[in-house]
Design goal:
By secondary structure, the protein is an alpha/beta fold. Strand 5, helix 5 and strand 6 form a beta-alpha-beta unit. It starts with a helix and ends with a strand. Bound molecules: S-adenosylmethionine and zinc ion.
Amino acid sequence: MLSKFEYSKNFLKNDDLLICPICKEKLILMDHSLVCKNKHTYDISKKGITTLVSHSHIKESKIYNYELFLNRRNFIQKMYYKDLYDEIIHIINEHFNNKINIVDLGCSEGAHTMNILNLLEQTYMYYGFDYSKVAIDMASCYNSDVRFYFVADVNNVPIKDNSIDLIIDLLSPYNQSEIKRLLKNNGVFIKVAPGKDYLKEMRAAANISTYDKDEEVEQNLNKNFKVVKKKHILNTFPITKDDFKLLLKMSPMYNDKVFKVPKIITIDLMVYIMNGEKL
Ligand SMILES: C[S@@+](CC[C@H](N)C(=O)[O-])C[C@H]1O[C@@H](n2cnc3c(N)ncnc32)[C@H](O)[C@@H]1O
Ligand SMILES: [Zn+2]
């Protein structure tokens, strides 16, 4: 079996899209680093972790810590989101039949998109970006010849213009002009946002206010993209006490003032599908 570092090198040898986050020149693999022609240098750690940001200091979030990401991974692996994955695979199959370049914005520790990639028939090159070092450290266990997770800012994505077929954003922040810059004309942008009943039982149990930003999300998307399709994923599942604990602790809204553990949980998500046509 290859070491994480060897996997990283294999991916980076195949890559043709990475650019320097400072000067935007192409990045070339040289020994243990990615280097641009202006000699900006980004080292690849033994674990394959590479930080592609334009400034040296990234403020780590205190809320998004290792424990949160671990609980997140454990919950996500229980497949409560299977309908979402099937819908995304359906969209991909509708649009693509050849090899695709995928960018995942705010990929976190990687479990959601790994569940999707496991169902994908198309061959791909996948670039996951998150500015949390802790998350990318965990995600790097999924690094392979065709997948790589980078510490990077979604506001300055280190990928060249008009090169991406599919951009996925699952419940993460995004930057509209960066998405327009990256996406090919015939590319697809999939944005997943919480619906108003998303995890409503958890919100009620922990006394957290309900989510009511779905209209705002849609209005913002419409300003910049052509929303070609919208799909509502709405399901209610029985939930065990242990899974509910994971869910609580994977949430940045977590607090320990839970009065009563619910028996069911609602997954309410809006999936927006947009094409690369520039508005
Ligand atoms: C709610 S989580 C969703 C993560 C993942 N897509 C998922 O569904 O499991 C939001 C993620 O966005 C990341 N994030 C927030 N702002 C970011 C930025 N400016 N650049 C890169 N990642 C960012 C956080 O570190 C976090 O991992
Ligand atoms: Zn440079």
